[in-house]
C-alpha cells in the first residue's frame, strides 16, 4: 500500500439533535470526494468524548491536487449541503511522513 501524501482532518460541531441527519447528508454527498481521482479515502468518525462532534478525514495523492479539489464547484456544493448541520468547524492539513500496517498474518 502506498503511503498517502496528504491528509485533511476536519473537526465539526453539529447542532444538537441533527446528528442522524448530518450522517445521512455526509453519506449522500460523499461521492463528491471519493470520485475525485486524487482522493484515496474518506472517513466519518463520531467523537466518544464530546457530544455532537465529528471528525472527517480524507487522504489525497498530494497537496496540490487537494487544493484543486478544495477550490472546485463540486466541493462548494458538498460544503453547502453540510453547512446547515454545522455549528462550527476547524480544518487541519498535514503531510503524511510514514505509516505502519499490521503484518498479513496478524488478526485485524
Automatic annotation (TrEMBL):
UniProt keywords, alphabetically: Monooxygenase, Oxidoreductase
Record-linked SUPFAM superfamilies: Dimeric alpha+beta barrel
Keyword hit for Cell membrane: no
Top-level taxonomic group: Bacteria
Pfam families the record matches: ABM
InterPro entries to which the protein is assigned, alphabetical: ABM_dom, Dimeric_a/b-barrel
GO MF, one example: monooxygenase activity
Signal peptide: none
Protein name per UniProt: Antibiotic biosynthesis monooxygenase
Amino acid at each position: 500500500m502506498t503511503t498517502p501524501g496528504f491528509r485533511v482532518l476536519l473537526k465539526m460541531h453539529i447542532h444538537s439533535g441533527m446528528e442522524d441527519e448530518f450522517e445521512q447528508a455526509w453519506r449522500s454527498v460523499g461521492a463528491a470526494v471519493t470520485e475525485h481521482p486524487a482522493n484515496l479515502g474518506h472517513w466519518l468518525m463520531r467523537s466518544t468524548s464530546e457530544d455532537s462532534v465529528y471528525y472527517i478525514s480524507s487522504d489525497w495523492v498530494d497537496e496540490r491536487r487537494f487544493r484543486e479539489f478544495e477550490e472546485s464547484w463540486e466541493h462548494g456544493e458538498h460544503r453547502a449541503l453540510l453547512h446547515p448541520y454545522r455549528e462550527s468547524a476547524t480544518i487541519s492539513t498535514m503531510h503524511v511522513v510514514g505509516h505502519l500496517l499490521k503484518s498479513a498474518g496478524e488478526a485485524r
